[in-house]
Amino acid sequence: MLARISILGIGKMGGAMALRLREQGHALSLWNRSAAKAEAVKAEDLPGACVVSESAAAAVAATAPDGMVVLVLSDTAACLATLDSIRDVLGGRTVINLTSGSPDDGRAAAAALPAGVAYMDGAYCGPPAKARQGAGVLFLSSEAEAEVDRLRPALGVLGELCYTGTKIGASRALDYAVVDLALVTYASLFSNMEMLEREGVDASQLHEHAAKRLSTVPGALKLLHGRCAGERTDAAYLASPVATLGTIHAFWASRLPYYDAHGIPPVFPKAMAGLCEAAATAGGGDHWAADVSRMQEAMRPPAKAAEP
Question: Does residue 48 sit in the same domain as residue 126?
Answer without folding.
Answer: yes
